[in-house]
Amino acid sequence: MQTDIDPRSLIGRKALDRNGAKIGTVDEVYLDDATGVPEWAAVRTGLFSRDAFVPLEPSDLVDNTLRVPFDKALIKDAPDFGVGRHLSPEQELQLYRHYGLHTSAAPAPPDQDFGTLANETP
């Protein structure tokens, strides 16, 4: 997705699936904790429905509409974590798996070799 878009400007926009079918309206945008880059959008899927999380990375903003490259059925079946709260790393991983997206490898464990003591000779 375009990185120069203000995430607040996505709120209230229509969201369409890969076939152009209306999914709903963007309610909230979630930013990556480390980078601050918009990562997920919560899309209200209907008047009495819930919000479904959709990934913003493979999505595009076309003619003021969020185009999500997944089928509407897959989006509606996404895990439901509620909105207005922080997504945990485990919840994000569930979402990535649901959409068949690759995640970056887990960080390497910290190096346990803290060096030699001052009075030791190398």
From TrEMBL:
GO CC, sorted alphabetically, is:
plasma membrane light-harvesting complex
Domain PRC-barrel span(s) in chain numbering: 8-74
Region of interest called Disordered, as start-end residue ranges on this chain: 99-122
Q: Which Pfam families match?
A: PRC
Question: Which one GO biological process term can you cite for this protein?
Answer: photosynthesis, light reaction
Q: What is this protein called?
A: Sporulation protein YlmC with PRC-barrel domain
Q: Which organism is it from?
A: Streptomyces candidus
Q: What is the lineage of its organism?
A: Bacteria, Bacillati, Actinomycetota, Actinomycetes, Kitasatosporales
